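Archive entry. Fields below.
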Amino acid sequence: MATQKQRPLSPHLLIYRPQITSVLSIAHRFTGVVLSFGALVLTYWLTSAAYGPEAFARAQAVLGSWFGRLMLLGLTFSLFFHFCNGIRHLVWDAGWGFEMNQLRATGWLVVTTSMILTLASWFAAYAVAGGS
Amino acid sequence: MRSPLGRVRGVGSTGEATAHFWAQRMTSLALIPLSLWFVFAALTLVGADHATFKAWLGHHGNVLLMVLFVAVLFHHAQLGLQMVIEDYVHAEGAKLASLIAVKFAAVLCGASCALAALNLAYGG
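PREDICTED_STRUCTURE:
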C-alpha cells in the first residue's frame, strides 16, 4: 500500500508547442473579450452623440487621436478575426471541417482573410477622411 | 437545421440545457450581416460632425439596424463573457458577482446605445 502509482499527466500548456488550432482557439476568446471592451467604446460614441454636438466632437477627436486610432485598429482586426473564426465555428456546428488538413487550411484562411479585411477597411477609412 | 439539436432539447433539470448554446449561435448568425453593415456604416461616418451623424440616423433603415445591432451585440457579448467567467473564475462568490455584473452592464450599455440612437433619430 505504500507505493504510489505514477499517474500519467496531461501535457502542460506552457510546454505544449503552439499550433494553429490551439492558438486560434484562445485567440477567439481573447478577441471576444477585446470586442466586449469595444462595445463599451461604441456606447461612449453613441451616448456622446446623444449628449450633443460638443460631446460628439470630443468623442470624434478622442477616437481620431493616435491613441484612438491604434485602439480602433486593434478593434477592427479583433472584429474581423472573431467574425471569420466565428463563421468557422458555425461551419463546425454544421458538422464540416474536422479533418486535420481542413482545420489547418481554414485556420490560415481565417488569419489571412481577417488581415486583408482589416487593411482594406483602413484604406477605405483614410479614403473617406481624405488623407487626414 | 434544427433537427439534430432538437433531439437533445429538454436535456437538463430545467429542460434548458442547450438554451445558452443555441442563443450564442443565433446571435452570432444575426451578427454576420449586422456587423458587416456596422463596419460599412462606421467607414462612411469617419470624421463626421454631429449634424451629419444625426441626419444619417434620421434614415429609418439606419436607426433600425443600429438598434438591432446593439441589442444582438450586447446579448452575444454577455453570453460569451459568461462562458469565460464560468471557465476561469472558480471562487463561488466572485463568480456569481461577476456574472451578475456582466449581465447588468450588458443591459445598461445596450439600453444606453439603443436610446441614444432613437433619441438622435426621433428626438428632434
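CURATOR_NOTE: The helical segments of chain B are 3-8, 19-44, 50-57, 60-88, 92-122.
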